[in-house]
Write a structure and sequence with these properties.
Layout lengths: L10 E3 L3 H19 L6 H23 L6 H4 L3 H12 L11 H36 L1 H4 L15 H5 L4 H33 L3 H7 L1 E3 L1
Antiparallel strand pairs: 1-2
């Protein structure tokens, strides 16, 4: 296997540019949406929509993308994941050039959690738009195609109670947003642990796209 100019002969390209751009842009988009969740801010809404668009791309790329970007490369049976987890804990886990079974499971969990967060946020926006139409009339609503989506503001509970299950949507939106943060923390911990076990910089690999053979 030949190396590209400027790279060691033991290096090989693993992550294509689209995977790397998706990864780091998703970090920025979700962090921005989460940190603006307590505000009636268009920034929160728009970055929520950006996250949904990024997820749609990643799902598509998971079927038609490069080898290590495809779900077929890193989605494993539950028994394989559990077996790898036991070996990982003891520090004797097999090294995978792409995502390992635990990493693959984490990707699916993050995609699912982010999808629920984004969809419930979108539904909150639709509910707020409908409420604005009832109060201000369709003429004013036409000027407000995207209404504020309240992610974490508990003071808005009473406002959403009678609005098509708005309170339930708000609680679900907040729950999965916080669950995503927890998954991100676990993901970072797993990356750091994997870097120690395999003695390679997995964070740098997501920047450069390259890992040792």
């Amino acid at each position: 296997m030949s190396a590209e100019p400027g790279h060691a002969a033991t290096d090989v390209k693993v992550w294509d540019p689209l995977v790397r751009i998706f990864h780091w842009s998703l970090v920025i988009a979700f962090a921005t949406a989460y940190l603006t969740g307590d505000e009636e801010s268009a920034v929160h809404e728009w970055f929520g929509y950006v996250v949904l668009g990024q997820i749609a791309f990643r799902v598509l790329w998971g079927f038609i993308g490069t080898r290590h970007a495809r779900f077929a490369d890193f989605v494993h049976r539950p028994g394989t994941v559990l077996g790898y987890a036991r070996e990982f804990i003891t520090g004797r886990a097999r090294r995978y050039l792409g995502h390992n079974p635990l990493g693959g499971m984490m990707i699916l969990a993050l995609l699912l959690s982010l999808t629920v967060t984004g969809v419930t946020g979108w539904q909150l926006g639709q509910a707020a738009t409908a409420e604005q139409a009832a109060v201000s009339g369709p003429a004013l609503t036409a000027l407000l195609p995207i209404a504020p989506a309240y992610a974490d503001d508990d003071d808005e509970d009473d406002e959403h109670e009678g609005n098509g299950g708005g309170e339930w949507l708000e609680e679900t939106h907040e729950l999965f947003a916080n669950l995503t943060v927890l998954l991100v923390i676990l993901h970072i911990a797993g990356v750091l642990a994997g870097s120690l076990i395999y003695r390679e910089n997995l964070v740098r690999a997501m920047f450069t796209g390259r890992k040792s053979v």
